[in-house]
Amino acid sequence: MAIETKPEHEIDSTTHEQLHELLKSCFPEYPARTYYKQLPHFRCLAWERDTLVAQVGIDHRMIKNGDTPLRVFGIIDLCVAVSARSRGVASNLLVEIETAARSSGVDAILLFADDPRVYLANGYQKVSNTTRWLMVNDHETLGVTERPLGEMMVKILSDKEWSGGVVDLLGYLF
Taking the mean position of all CA atoms in its chain, how far away is CA 16? Predict the structure, then answer.
C-alpha cells in the first residue's frame, strides 16, 4: 500500500472518479461529488496498485477554543474500502496526518466522528464543547448556529490546552 498526500487542486479526474466511488460505498447518502460541504485543502490517499482503497480530506484553518486561537487540521470523511478494512489503513492515514501536522506547527487535529473507535485507538479524545459554525448545505450558506455536538474529538499536538469553552470553527462544520 502506498499513501500520498495531495493538494485538492492537483487531483486528476480519474482519481476524482475513484474518490466518488469510494465515498459512495462507505457513505451511501453521500452526494454525487467528492466533497460533502466544501472542498478540502488536501487529501491523504491510500493506494493498492492503481486502486484507491482509502481517503481522508483535511481542512487547514484557525479555530477558537474558548479564548485561545488554534491552528488545526480538520479531518473530513475518513473512509476505507471494505476490501482493505481491518489492516490498519485508517491508522496509517492518521499517522500521516499527524506527521504533516506536527511539521507544520499545527496545534491540534479536530474531527467529528459517528464511530470513534479508530480515533480513540490513535490517541484522540472525545470533547463536549458548545460549537459555533457556518451552516452550509448544497452550496448555500444558511447562517451561523451554536450548539453542543457530542461527536467532537481532538488530539492536541502543541503545548496549548483544550478548554471547555465554546469552540468557534470560524467556518463550516468539517
Answer: 17
* Residue spans of the chain under pLDDT 70: none
d(CA 81, CA 58): 19
Domains and CATH numbers, the chain: 2-172 (3.40.630.30)
Residue-wise pLDDT tens digits, 60-110: 999 999 999 999 999 999 999 999 999 999 999 999 999 999 999 999 999
CB-CB contact of 116 with 141 (8 Å) = no
The verdict on pTM exceeding 0.90 is yes
